[in-house]
Amino acid sequence: MVTIPSRRKRATIHDVAVEAGVSRGTVSRVVNDEPYVSASARTAIEAAIEKVGYVPNNAARSLVMQRSEAVGFIVHEPHSLFLDDPNIGGILLGANTVLSRSDYQMVSLVIDSQRDTDRVARYLSGGFVDGVIIVSARREDPITRVIEKLRLPAAFVGHPPEQSPLPFVGIDNRASARAITERLMQTGRQRIGMVAAALDRDSGADRLAGFTDALGDRFNPALVARVPLYTFTDGVKGMCALLERDPLIDGVFAASDAVAAGALEALRHAGRSVPGDVGIVGFDDSSWALRTQPHLSTVHQPAFGLGERAAECVLGQLRGEEQPADGILLETPIIWRDSA
Amino acid sequence: MVTIPSRRKRATIHDVAVEAGVSRGTVSRVVNDEPYVSASARTAIEAAIEKVGYVPNNAARSLVMQRSEAVGFIVHEPHSLFLDDPNIGGILLGANTVLSRSDYQMVSLVIDSQRDTDRVARYLSGGFVDGVIIVSARREDPITRVIEKLRLPAAFVGHPPEQSPLPFVGIDNRASARAITERLMQTGRQRIGMVAAALDRDSGADRLAGFTDALGDRFNPALVARVPLYTFTDGVKGMCALLERDPLIDGVFAASDAVAAGALEALRHAGRSVPGDVGIVGFDDSSWALRTQPHLSTVHQPAFGLGERAAECVLGQLRGEEQPADGILLETPIIWRDSA
DNA sequence: GGGTTTTCTGTGAACGTACACAGATTAGGT
DNA sequence: ACCTAATCTGTGTACGTTCACAGAAAACCC
User: Fold this and answer.
1) Tell me, what CATH number does A109's domain have?
2) Out of A96, A110, A115, whose CB is closest to B110?
3) Residues facing residue A124 across a β-bridge
4) Closest nt by CA–C1' to A45
5) Nearest CA in chain B to A12
6) Judgement on whether residues A181 and A293 belong to the same structural domain of the protein
């Protein structure tokens, strides 16, 4: 009868040591290429590693080293973020680029339910990551408490959580909204409205605030349509509402590019030309901006840069450097295209 | 002089034991809520855990348990996938949903460079994950070899890697392309062309093959425009090429919804009406499909379902169940809207 | 050739947990 | 009151590394 070695155990550093006729210590030195190992020992060990198919066990390593060389990238509310938010991919890649350069493994953790929250909290607590980057749409995030309690090096991206000492990297939504609204006013529009979205989030509220800042005395509360989400369909609805309230409206600031695309659709339906009858500007400079006809004038959101800076912030903390208590705000250039 | 406990060491199970006046074993039983522990001990231990702020160390646990309760989700070529591929988010959420239900932590690993490939390979080797789901656009993926060598439970999603025994979950691109082309033919179109994209990938090549299958004798090689990527801009280019070759073209199968959106743009520019002059169908049923005017008739790709099945496949292997050697193909219903 | 430095190697302890085992206590049935 | 069974608890070992330390060997200098 033949015994089937259905699942052979993984080779350990000890197996390599006996195979090469040396001690564990010497093998360890070769694996982490430290000095003070003879040429003969080195070649023997390398051959042995190849022969037994040795790969170091990270769990054991991070247990004794007290670190994992990994940084978590937490995405909360993925339904809205992954499927609608065009920035998330850029942030992710920016963060990965920086972490990769320092040989940190980025692991993204998706939180999609209460169960996920608990599990991710356990994961973070368990020493599987040395730091964490959080992209959250929520003002108050239960995972924030866990991170604070663990004193885990962290960085928020997008906008800061309420009442949290954690550092963050973001953009100045209010100033950017003000800037692009002023630019729209300079085109000579007289009746400017806004489709404001996601007012329950900092970003949404700030964009509306920037809009009113820009209009000053000329602000007309009736020309603000409020919709729940940064989506195409909410853009359609919001624009329809504005047209009903003022058929002569000639300028619109949409809270996001997706909203702007929806507004464009509503205007087309209503027989208005853009930018002829109505000038419209968006926010994000996402892939939406070039998919519409005409292309959108919008505020560029430096997604990749946000990811990079967040990663640098976490790496800095890992190196023991003190980080600025205030958040970092990145520049948001205005991209002027054809829609206004 | 006051000593500042700048970074207090994390409490261990041993600290809890001392605090509660019991042994490590009993604490362990409480933490993993096993039976055979008295009510008094339990309350004392729970209080002690709270007091010293104990959180179990996963690295130590997975070292002794020889498993990590985590499954990797590898995304290769994120530039094209995250930013253009509308399916990735759905796959990710589907996989997470299933894994979450079994209390597995899903960790996504992004491969964006050679350096990343090596690091991810080390990460997988190191015992940080018990299994892996791979979403790759590449036919030949270096990470595949690593996984095979490690005998790590795995599942490919999208389409199978070449010459690999690893199980996969996907759709039948060829049959789906054939089906929707036939549906387009049934609308009475006489001169049907295709904007074929990404012919270096299985999906791209299969979609073209399905198209020629459907046309049979009526296939006209001149009416196939080949473009490199599944993108909007390539769609514009491809459609322009088709219009040049046959100005009377009245039906188009676009290799993806993004390509179809580009084609629509080109047709609008050329003054053709859709679906009046030209009928057009896409592939993916992505968010593009409802953003265009008119909405796209397309092949629905069950992204969420693909993720679910891939996760189930990996979980099955972890439970020791034998998996079907052949891949699993999911249904792809045709969604008929206004563009044809 | 003796002493000092440099290079190389092996050993034991530690990291924080789970688990098997043994021992102690309590409960249950005659 | 005794025996058996059930319940509860503590101890030692193992998981696979890294690191400090102690020696051994080689190299170098007067």
Assistant:
1) 3.40.50.2300
2) A96
3) none
4) C9
5) B126
6) yes
Per-residue CA distances from B255 to B148, B176, B306 (Å): 32, 11, 20
| Residue B248 predicted with pLDDT over 90 | yes
On whether residue B8 sits in a domain, the answer given is: no
Residue A4 lies in a domain: no
- A183-189: long-range pairs with CB below 8 Å, 24+: A183/A281, A183/A297, A183/A334, A183/A336, A184/A251, A184/A253, A184/A279, A184/A281, A184/A297, A184/A340, A185/A214, A185/A215, A185/A251, A187/A251, A187/A279, A187/A340, A189/A250, A189/A251, A189/A279, A189/A340
Q: In this structure, are A36 and A179 located in the same domain?
A: no
Per-residue burial over A53-90, b if 16 or more Cβ lie within 10 Å, else e, is ebbbbbbbbbbeeeebbbbbbbbbbbeebbbbbbbbbb
User: Does some domain include residue B24?
Assistant: yes
Long-range Cβ contacts of A160-166 (<8 Å, 24+ apart): A160/A202, A160/A327, A161/A136, A165/A325, A166/A134
B224, B291: one domain = yes
Least confident of A146-150, A325-329, B4-8: B4-8
Q: What is the mean pLDDT of residues A27-31?
A: 93
pLDDT tens digit sequence for A306-329: 999 999 999 999 988 777 667 889
Cis peptide before A5 (omega within 30 of 0): no
Co-location of A191 and A132 in the same domain: no
DSSP state of A296: P
Domains: count for chain A: 3
pTM for the predicted model, two decimal places: 0.87
- Angstrom distances, CA of residue B137 to CA of B88, B105, B106, B140: 11, 24, 20, 9
Q: Are residues B128 and B214 in the same domain?
A: no
Lowest mean pLDDT among A112-116, A181-185, A204-208, B274-278: A112-116
Contact A100 B78 (CB under 8 A): no
* Confidence check: pLDDT of B86 > 90: no
Stretch B75-88: mean pLDDT:
69
CA→C1' distance for A52 and C14 (Å): 27
Read off the pLDDT band of B142 (50, 70, 90). confident
Beta-carbon-side half-sphere exposure of residue A210 (alpha carbons within 13 Å): 28
Residues A263 and A280: beta-carbon distance below 8 Å: yes
Q: Looking at the domain assignment, is residue B340 inside a domain?
A: no
Do A312 and A266 share a structural domain?
no
Q: pLDDT class for A2, splitting at 50, 70, 90?
A: very low
Distance CA B179, CA B182 (A): 5
Nearest CB among A60, A103, A126 relative to B119 is that of A103
Same domain, B294 and B254: yes
What is the separation, in whole angstroms, between the first and last Cα of chain B?
82
Q: Near strand D (CB < 7 A), which residues?
A: A 9-10, 12-14, 24-25, 28, 31-32, 54-57, 60-61, 63-65; B 21-26, 29, 35-41, 60, 63-64, 66
Average pLDDT over residues B59-66: 90
* Residue B275 sits in the same domain as residue B228: yes
Q: Which domain holds residue B128?
A: 70-171+304-330
Task: State pLDDT tens for residues A220-272.
Answer: 999 999 999 888 889 999 999 999 999 999 999 999 999 999 999 999 989 99
B8-40 pLDDT, tens per residue? 578 899 999 998 899 999 999 999 888 888 888
Confidence of residue B161 (pLDDT cuts 50, 70, 90): low
Q: Per the structure block, which two tokens stand in for B89?
A: 């988010």
